[in-house]
Amino acid sequence: MKSFNKHTLAVGLAMAMSLSFGAATASAHAGHEHESVQVEQVNPLLAEWTGPYGGVPAFDKMNLKDASAAFDIAIKENLADYEKIANNPEPATFENTIVAMESAGERLGRAGTYFGIWSSNLSSPEVRKLQMELSPKFSDMSAKISQNKKLFARVKKVYQDALKTPLDADQQRLTLTTYEGFAMRGADLDPEKQKKYAAISKELGQIYNKFSNNVLHDEEGYVTFLSKDQLSGLPESFTKSAAKIAADKGQEGKYAVTNTRSSMDPFLTFSDERELRKIVWTNYYSRGDNGDEYDNNELIAKILKLRKERVGILGYDNYAEWRLQNRMAKTPENAMGLMEAVWPAAIARVKEEVADMQAVADELGHGITIEPWDYRYYAEKVRKKKYDLDSNEVKQYLQLDNLTEAMFYVAGELFNFKFTAIEKGKVPVFHEDVNVWEVTDKSSGEHIGLWYLDPYARQGKRSGAWATSYRSHETYNGKQTVLSSNNSNFIKPAPGEALLVSWDDANTFFHEFGHALHALASNVRYPSLNGGVRDYTEFQSQLLERWLSTDVVINKYMKHSKTGEVIPKALIAKIKKAATFNQGFSTTEYLASALMDMKFHLADPEGIDPDKFERETLAALNMPKELVMRHRTPHFGHVFSSEGYATAYYGYMWADVLTADAAEAFKEAPGGFYDKEVAAKLVKYLFAPRNAMDPAEAYRKFRGRDATIDALMRDRGFPVPEKK
Question: Mapping DSSP to helix (H, G, I), strand (E, B) and coil, where does residue 2 land?
Answer without folding.
Answer: coil
